[in-house]
Amino acid sequence: MPHARVATFGEIMLRLSPPGHQRFRQAHDFRVEYGGGESNVAVSLANFGLDVRFVTRLPANDIGDCALYALRGAGIDTSHVVRGGKRLGIYFLEKGAVQRGSKVVYDREDSGMATLRPGQIDWDRAFDGVTWFHWTGITPALSQSAADACREACREASARGITISVDLNHREKLWQYGKSPREVMPELIEYCDLIVGGAREAASYFDIQGEDFADVARQLQQRFPKARRIATTLRETLSASHNTYSGLLWDGEELHAAPVYQLTHIVDRVGGGDSFMGGLIYGLITWPEEPATALRFATAASALKHTIIGDVNLVTVEEVVNLMEGDASGRVSR
Amino acid sequence: MPHARVATFGEIMLRLSPPGHQRFRQAHDFRVEYGGGESNVAVSLANFGLDVRFVTRLPANDIGDCALYALRGAGIDTSHVVRGGKRLGIYFLEKGAVQRGSKVVYDREDSGMATLRPGQIDWDRAFDGVTWFHWTGITPALSQSAADACREACREASARGITISVDLNHREKLWQYGKSPREVMPELIEYCDLIVGGAREAASYFDIQGEDFADVARQLQQRFPKARRIATTLRETLSASHNTYSGLLWDGEELHAAPVYQLTHIVDRVGGGDSFMGGLIYGLITWPEEPATALRFATAASALKHTIIGDVNLVTVEEVVNLMEGDASGRVSR
Amino acid sequence: MPHARVATFGEIMLRLSPPGHQRFRQAHDFRVEYGGGESNVAVSLANFGLDVRFVTRLPANDIGDCALYALRGAGIDTSHVVRGGKRLGIYFLEKGAVQRGSKVVYDREDSGMATLRPGQIDWDRAFDGVTWFHWTGITPALSQSAADACREACREASARGITISVDLNHREKLWQYGKSPREVMPELIEYCDLIVGGAREAASYFDIQGEDFADVARQLQQRFPKARRIATTLRETLSASHNTYSGLLWDGEELHAAPVYQLTHIVDRVGGGDSFMGGLIYGLITWPEEPATALRFATAASALKHTIIGDVNLVTVEEVVNLMEGDASGRVSR
Amino acid sequence: MPHARVATFGEIMLRLSPPGHQRFRQAHDFRVEYGGGESNVAVSLANFGLDVRFVTRLPANDIGDCALYALRGAGIDTSHVVRGGKRLGIYFLEKGAVQRGSKVVYDREDSGMATLRPGQIDWDRAFDGVTWFHWTGITPALSQSAADACREACREASARGITISVDLNHREKLWQYGKSPREVMPELIEYCDLIVGGAREAASYFDIQGEDFADVARQLQQRFPKARRIATTLRETLSASHNTYSGLLWDGEELHAAPVYQLTHIVDRVGGGDSFMGGLIYGLITWPEEPATALRFATAASALKHTIIGDVNLVTVEEVVNLMEGDASGRVSR
Amino acid sequence: MPHARVATFGEIMLRLSPPGHQRFRQAHDFRVEYGGGESNVAVSLANFGLDVRFVTRLPANDIGDCALYALRGAGIDTSHVVRGGKRLGIYFLEKGAVQRGSKVVYDREDSGMATLRPGQIDWDRAFDGVTWFHWTGITPALSQSAADACREACREASARGITISVDLNHREKLWQYGKSPREVMPELIEYCDLIVGGAREAASYFDIQGEDFADVARQLQQRFPKARRIATTLRETLSASHNTYSGLLWDGEELHAAPVYQLTHIVDRVGGGDSFMGGLIYGLITWPEEPATALRFATAASALKHTIIGDVNLVTVEEVVNLMEGDASGRVSR
Amino acid sequence: MPHARVATFGEIMLRLSPPGHQRFRQAHDFRVEYGGGESNVAVSLANFGLDVRFVTRLPANDIGDCALYALRGAGIDTSHVVRGGKRLGIYFLEKGAVQRGSKVVYDREDSGMATLRPGQIDWDRAFDGVTWFHWTGITPALSQSAADACREACREASARGITISVDLNHREKLWQYGKSPREVMPELIEYCDLIVGGAREAASYFDIQGEDFADVARQLQQRFPKARRIATTLRETLSASHNTYSGLLWDGEELHAAPVYQLTHIVDRVGGGDSFMGGLIYGLITWPEEPATALRFATAASALKHTIIGDVNLVTVEEVVNLMEGDASGRVSR
User: Fold this and answer.
1) Is E252 on the interface with B (CB under 8 A)?
2) N or C: which end of chain E has fewer CB within 10 A?
C-alpha cells in the first residue's frame, strides 16, 4: 500500500432516490445515501487502503450526524469536519432506463458547506501530515464564501508543498451567486498539479477551445504550467442503460488512452467521474512515474463503479487490478 | 396545451405482481397497482395536461375506493364513475426475463364493469363538454350487458358529434359470453374516427386479410368509412427483456412510419399499447393536420412507457418531445 | 408423466444474499433461500412432476427446520432426511453485474451433512422404490466421513440396480480434509451410468486431458465403462450480466449439441448447472432412447433458470418444451 | 406423538393485507398469504406432528398452485386436493389498532371450492386411514353445491366411523344462495362428535337461547346427542390491540374453564378460533379422557397464535405445553 | 352530507421518516409522505365527503409535483395551488417508543410557501363559492411575507362573509424572522369565528393566563369577540406509546367535554391536532347548533388518527360516528 | 466529556433476524446487524462521546469486513482488530411477543474470536493510553484458547494499572470445551474493579448463595477484594412485550437502587444488559465518586435501549440525562 495521506474537501449531501426505476411520483420510500464529489473520492481512497480525511462543514443536527456516520463507516477520518450551518444539502435522484434519462433535483442551497467561510477550518490541523489535497469545481460554484474558503484551502495546501488535484466538474445550475466560473476558477487552478476535466469545462471556465482532448490539454498546460498531468473520462451514452466508457491522460509529452469498457447493464452511473478521480489519485500515488498504468487503474475502477448502487465506489485494489489486467468476464468468484 | 376534453370508458382492475422477476410462487408480497386499457389512456392524457375524465363502474367497497383514489391521484376527473357490482376485477402479472415470457392470470369475471348495463351511466352528464371519446375492444368482450353499454356510449357520443377512437385490442381469453367479436364489433366500429389495431384484429373481428398494414388499413377504411385514420404499433419481441418498437399510421392517403426504438432493457411492457393510444390522441388533438407528427409523438411516448413500472405512462409532453426530436441517449438531466 | 422415483443425496445450505446488486457491505437485509447442488436437482424434478426424495442430514434446530419446510414446499419427499449435527451450512452470495463478478463466501464446515457418517442413513428405506439416484462431487469433498457415506450410498444404489448419475462439480476450495479428488473420486465414479462434467473436472479428478469435449468424453468412458452417457454444459461468460449457454452430450457413439442461448439479462446464474442436470435426468427418463432430445430439454430448462432468482429452477415441463421447440421470444402469456 | 390421521375439508383463500397498520388505500404492497378455517386447523395439526391431509378444490391456474405450495410447505398431505373451478377465493385484510377495528373484504364468490359438487371428491381415497374429520360452518354457507358436498363428506365420514368435529363459525355475510343456516346446518351437525361454537351460533343456526354457555351446551347436546363435547372460546375485545382470551368445554357432565390470557399486544388475531380448534383436536387425540387438559392446550395454543402474523398458528407442542404449564413470561430462549 | 365548501391555506411539506422505530442513523430508507397542518385538515374533510380545496405555493419541480399528486389523490381540489419558490419544505420524523420521544427535524426554510407574497394568490377565484376558511398559526410564523399573505387571506375571506377558523398551533422554533407572535397574531385572530388552542398558545400569543381552559377561553372571547367557539385538545403523554386524549369546547356559555380515549398503542401521533380540527369543522358544519356533538365527533376522529401512519386521518364519517357512539372495542369488521 | 480511553475485548457476531414478529420459518429476509456483548458496550461509549477501541479477531473475508465497517461506522477505533480464523460467529434471533418469548439460535463455534490464542493481540499497542478495560464472561466460555487469551488481557491490563470491569454474563449453552466456569472464572475476576452480575452468576461461577443482592454483593467483595463496586440489573418479565427494569449497585458500604422503568412496548430487548454496562462505565468515569448517579444513568440508558432495534444502544448523553432527570413522557421533540 502506498505511503500517503490524502485530504479531500467539499460538500456531502443526503441523496434520496426512489427504489429501482420508479419515477419520483411513484415513490413511497426513498433510498437514503450520502454522497458528494469530494467525499466520493475519499471513499474510493479509503477502500484502496489509503489514509484519507474529509474536510467539510455539516449542520449540527441529526441529519448532519447521519452523514458523519456514513463517512466514518467508510473508514474516513472525520476529525476535521466542522459543524455549523442550517442544513445538509439534499439531492433527489430518479434513475432512468433505456431512452429515459436519469433526473437529478438539487435542494442544496444554504447548506453548511455553502455557508462555510474562510477561517472556519483550522488548516494547520487539517493538513497535518497530508501529502495530497483534492477539491472540485463544485465548491467555488456554491457561494462566494465557499469560493473564498476554497481559495484559502488551495493556498494553504500549496504553502505546505502538498500535491493538489482538481476535478473541474462543471454544473451549470450552480454558479448562482453572481460570479461566473471564468472570474473564479483560473486563480484556483493555478495551484493544481493534476487536472481532470474535458473540453466542456475548458471552454466554460477558461474559454479554451480545442480540436481534440490532446489539443485542449496542451492549451490548459500552457495556461496552468503547474499542471503536470491532465486527464479526462470518455463516456458515450448509448442509452441510460448502456454506455461506453474510457479515459485519456496527457502527461505533458504523451497522450495515454485506456481501454474502452462496454457498460451494458448500468446499475448506477452517479459518481462515475468521482470513481475515476479516486482511481487516478490512487494510481498516481502508487505508480507515480507510470501515468498510463494509473489511467488504466482509474478507468477500470470507474467501470466497476457503474455496477454499484449509490454514489460511492465500493471496490478493492485487487478487484480493480483484476479487471485492469483484462478479466472483464464477471465470472463467479467462489 | 390543446383545448379539448376527453372521456375514456372501460374497466380498471387491481393489478397484483410479484416484485422484480419473481415467479408467482416465490412472492410473499404483491406490488399493488390499478390499471386497465382505457384508464391507462386517461392517465397518459392527464399527464400531457389534457382535461380528461374516466367513466366506469366500481364496486362500493374499499377495494373499489382504492381504484378511485388511484385515478384521482393521476389528475383524472372521476365524478362520472358509478358505484355498484360485486367486485373489482383483478389481474395477476408475473414479469418475465430473456427467454421466459411474462404471464398474466385474469380474475376479472363479475366485476362492476362487466355487469354494467345500459342506462346506468348518465351520458348527458358524462359527455358534458366532451370533445373526444375513447373505448377499446375489451369492454364488449366482457359480457353482453357491457357490450350493450358500449354500444349505448358510442351512439350517445356520436349523436353529440364527439370524435371517437377505439383500440381494437383483441384478447382471445375474453369473449366468453356466447358472442363472437364478428357479431359485435362491426356495428361499434362504424362510429369510430380513429382505429388502432393490426392485422390480427382485422382478421379476428372483420375477417379482413391483407398483404401488409397499408393493405389492411385500406380495407378497414373501405368497410368503415368514418375512420379517417388507422394506426398500429409494431413490436418485435426479441426476448422478454429486449423488444424493438415502432408504429404506423394510414391517413387515407399516405402511410406514415415512426422511427424504430430499441427497447433493450424493458422495465414493464404492460400498457405499451395504451401509451401509444394516449400519445396518438394527444398528438391528433395537438397537431390535427399532422398525423405523422402525432404518430411520432405516440411512438416516442410508448417507448418511454417501457421504462416505467406499472400499467400507466408517467411522462410529460416535454419528455416525449425530447425523445421524439431525437435524443434517445438517456443522459442524466441535472 | 414418466414413471420413476428419483432420490438425490447431498447438502442443502442456507443462502444469504444482499438484495439486487448490493455489495455485502451495503446490505441491511439478506434475502433468505435454501439450496444446494443435489436439492436443486430435486426441486427441478418435482416441478417436472416426478416423484422425488431428498436425502440429507439437517441439524435439529430451527434453521434446519427452515430448510426442511423449503424442501417440502417444493413438493419433495423429506421423510428420509435425518436430523443431527451442529449447524446448517451457509453460503453468502453477492450478485455481480457487467464487469463485476458475483462472489460466494462459504461458511459450511461442520454442517450436519459434512459430519454425516456411513450407517446414519437407512438406505433400505431411503432407496425403497427408487429407480434413479443422483449425487455430486461436492459431497465427497466435504469430509472423510461424507466421502465414506457417499461411497456407501453408491454401493447400496448399485446393489439395487438403480441408475446412478453424478455431477462432477469440482470446487477447489473444498477438499480440505487431506485427500485429493484423485484419491477419492475414481472409485465412486465407477458406479455411475451418467456423468456430467467437463474438461476441468476430467483433469482434476482423473488426470484426463483431451483436445475437445468429445475426446475427453471418450477417454472418460474408456476409464468408466458403466457410464453410458457423458454430458457437459458450455458457458461463455461475456460479462456477469450476459452469458451464452449450451450443452453437449456424448452417448458412446455420437456427440449431440444443443442450441446456444443468449442469456442477455441474467437474473441469477447460481444453480445453472443443477438445472441442466435436473433437465437431463428428466429428459433421459422421459425419452430414454433420445439423448439428443434430453439434452435439448436440459439446455432449455437451464436457460430458463437464469431468469429466476434463487438456486432452484421453478419451471414446468410445458414451459421448457415451449422454449425447446423454439419460442425464445419471451412473449406475454395472457 | 399420538397415533391418528386427520382430514380437514374446506376452502383456502388468498389473503392480501397491507403491511403493518396501513389502511387499504395506503398500501402499495399487499402481504401474500394463504388461509382458511379448515386449512388453518390442518396447519396447526401438522405443526403438532400429526398426519394431516387437507381436502379442497383449487383452480387449475398459477394462483391455485401457490395455495398448494403453501399447504405442502406446511407439511400437509395435498394428494386429495382436486383441481377445477374458475378462481381462488380472495380476502383482503386491513389490520386495525386500538379503537380502529380490523376490516375484512371478501371476494370469494365462484371459487373452486364454492362450485364444488358432490361426487367430485373420491372419499374412498380421501378418507383412507383417516380417524378424524373436521369441517366448519363456512362450507355449507358458500353455495348449495358446497353444502351438498359437505353433507356427502359428513355421511361418508360417519359411515366409516370417523370422529367428526365442526367449528360452527357463523359468518352473516355468507349464506347468499337462498337458504338459511337453520335449513341446512341441523342435519349436518347430527354427524358431529365435537362442536365448537357459542351462543351466537346456537341462536342463529338452531334457535337455541341460553342463560350461559353451560346452558347452551346442554341444549345443544340434547338436540345433537352424538356431540359428546361442546366447546367455545371466550374473547373480550378491549381494543383491536388488547383482548382477553379463554375457553370453555362442556363434556356432558362438567364445564371446564381454561385460564384467561391477557393478549396485550396482538400481532394478528385472524385465525384465533382455528388455532383453538387445532389445539382442541390435538388435545382430544392426545388426552382423549382429559378434556380439561385438551381445553387448556387449545387455549394456550390460541393465545400464542395471536403473536404470529398470518392465518396459521406456527407453534410446536413443546411451546404450547410450556405456556399451558404456566410460563407466560415470554422470556428469551437462548 | 352537509352543504359547504371549505378552503384551507398553508404549507405542505415532504415528510421523511425511518421505517418502524428506527433512529435516523439506522435508516437506509425513508418513508415518503406529504403533510402539513392545513392540508391535513383538508384531507380529513375530503374523507368526510366535503368539497374542499387547498391553497398553497409549491415549487415548480418534481418534488412539488409529488405533493400535488398526493393532494389530488386525497380528493382535494388543487386548482388554486400556485407554483413558485425554490423548494418544498421538508421535515424529518423519527418515531419514538415508550420512554424515547419522537423527534422532528425541520428543514423548511425558503420553501415556496415561506416565500409567498400578498398578491400571488387570486383570492377571487380561490374563494369562489367557499363557505369556510381555515388557517393556522404556522403560516404567519414562517416569514414576514407569509404573515402578510395570511393577513390578506383573512381579510379577503372576511370581506366575503366566509366563516374563519384557526388552529393557533404554536411552534417555538419558527418565528425566526424578527417578529414575535404577539406582534402578529392578534390582528389575524380578530377575523376568526372558531379558535382551537390551549393555555400555552394563549400565553405565548396574547399574554393571557388562566386558571383552567374555561377561564382562558372566556378571556380569549373577551379579547376576540367574533370567536363564537373556542376549543382545545387534552393530551396526557404517559409515554411515546401511550397517551390519553380528549377535547374541550367553550361555546360562549358552556364548557363541553368529550370522553377520554386511552390511546394505548399509538401508531402515529403526528397530525393528531389537525385531525381534531378537521373533525371539528366537519362537526360544526353538520351540526351547527350542537357544539357538544361536533366536539365528540372531533375527538373520536382524532383518536382514530393515532392508529394511522402518516400525517393525515384516513377515516370515514361512518367510522368516526361508530366510535363516537361508543364502540371503542376495535372488533373485526367482516 | 470525561477524559478517558476505554478498550473492550470480545466477540462480535453477525445477527440475523426475521423482520417484525415473524417466526424463523416465515422469514424470506433476515435483517442484518452486527453485535456482541463487548462491542455493544463500545458502541454505547462511542455514542456518549468517549474514546473507545474494540479488540477482537475477525475472519479475513467479506463477512468479517462487514463487522469491521459496522464498528467503524459507530465511531469505534478498530485499529487493534486482528484478522484470522475461519468464520464470523452468527446468531439468529426471532423476536417474540406477549406470551411467546424471543428465541436465539447460536452458530458461533470456530469463529475467529473463539480460536484466538494468547500472543495474537499486541497488548502494548492495544492498551496504549487506555484507562479502562472491559470484558465479559462470554469470552472465557468460548474455548480454552479464548479463556487463555482473556487471562492474558486481564494480566496485561492489570500490569498497566488500567481499571477493569467485567459483566459476568452467564450463558449455559456455552462452556462446551471441558472446563466449568468455576475452574476458570475466579482467577479472572480477581483482576476486576467493577463486577456486574447477579445471584445466578454468583452461584454458577463461585458457588456463592445469598439472601438478596446486597448479601451476594458483600460475599463477592469478600472473595474478590479488588472489586470496589458490584452492580446488577433487575428485570421482571411480565411478557415478551412488557418488562419492568431497574438496577442496583453496592459500593462496599451502601446499596443504591435506581428507579423502576415500565417497558410497556419493548422494541428489542437484546443488548439490554450491555447498554446498562455501557451506561455504568460512562457514569463511573464521569461521576467517579457518585455511584448512585452512575447507576441512575446506566438504568436510564438501558431503559432507552429497549426502544431501539438491534443490539446496540444508539442514544446520546443528553437523551439519557433527560430521562434520568425524570422525563419519561416520550413527548415529541420538535
Assistant:
1) no
2) N
Q: CA D21, CA C135: separation in Å to the nearest integer?
A: 48
Confirm if D55 and D162 have CB atoms less than 8 A apart: no
Please report, for chain B, the start and end positions of each structural domain, with discontinuous segments joined by +: 5-317
b/e code F80-111 from CB counts within 10 Å (16+ = b):
bbbeebbbbbbbbbbbbbbbbbbbbbbbbbbb
Q: Give the model confidence (pLDDT) of C154-196 as tens digits.
A: 999 999 999 999 999 988 889 999 999 999 999 999 999 999 9
Query: Which superfamily does F5-322 belong to?
Result: Ribokinase (3.40.1190.20)
Please check whether residue E141 touches B, CB under 8 A.
no
Cβ contacts from A onto F, under 8 A:
16
* C87: closest CA of chain F, how far (Å): 7
For the domain made up of B5-317, give the CATH fold: UDP-N-acetylmuramoyl-L-alanine:D-glutamate ligase (3.40.1190)
Element (H or E) spanning B267, and its range?
none
- Tell me the per-residue pLDDT of F54-95, one tens digit each, with 9 for 90 and over: 999 999 999 999 999 999 999 999 999 999 999 999 999 999
Which residue in chain A has the smallest CA separation from B300?
A: A99
pLDDT at B327: 81
Is residue E298 classed exposed, middle or buried when 0-12, 13-18 and 19+ CB atoms within 10 A define those classes? buried
pTM of the model: 0.97
CA distances from D112 to D60, D120, D146, D203, E149 (A): 9, 11, 10, 30, 63
CB contact A331 to C (< 8 Å): yes
Q: Is A326 on the interface with C (CB under 8 A)?
A: no
CATH architecture of A5-229: 3-Layer(aba) Sandwich (3.40)
**Range list of β-strands (E), chain B:** 5-9, 13-17, 29-35, 51-55, 57-58, 82-83, 90-94, 103-107, 132-136, 163-167, 194-196, 229-237, 243-250, 255-257, 261-263
pLDDT of residue E327: 81
Are F45 and F53 spatial neighbours (Cβ–Cβ below 8 Å)?
A: no
Query: Is some CB atom of chain A closer than 8 A to the CB atom of C119?
Result: no
CB contact F19 to D (< 8 Å): no
A neighbours by CB contacts (3+ pairs under 8 Å): B, C, E, F
- DSSP E strand stretches across A82-239: 82-83, 90-94, 103-107, 132-136, 163-167, 194-196, 229-237
The per-residue DSSP string of B215-226 comes to HHHHHHHHHSTT
Query: Per-residue confidence of chain A (334 residues) as pLDDT tens digits?
Result: 557 999 999 999 999 999 999 999 999 999 999 999 999 999 999 999 999 999 999 999 999 999 999 999 999 999 999 999 999 999 999 999 999 999 999 999 999 999 999 999 999 999 999 999 999 999 999 999 999 999 999 999 999 999 999 999 988 889 999 999 999 999 999 999 999 999 999 999 999 999 999 999 999 999 999 999 999 999 999 999 999 999 999 999 999 999 999 999 999 999 999 999 999 999 999 999 999 999 999 999 999 999 999 999 999 999 999 999 988 777 888 7
Cβ within 8 Å, pair E310-D26: yes
Homologous superfamily of domain range D5-324: Ribokinase (3.40.1190.20)
Rounded to a whole number of angstroms, the distance from the CA of A140 to the nearest CA of chain B is 18
List, in sequence order, every residue forming a beta bridge with B134; answer none if it has no partner: B8, B165
Q: What Rg value do the Cα atoms of chain B yield, rounded? A: 19
Query: Which chain C positions have a beta carbon within 8 Å of B270's beta carbon?
Result: 332
Smallest CA–CA distance, residue F29 to chain A, in Å, is 17
Q: Chain E partners of A103 at a C-beta cutoff of 8 Å?
A: 62
**Could you tell me how many CB contacts below 8 A there are between chain A and chain B?**
82
- The yes/no answer to whether this complex scores an ipTM above 0.85 is yes
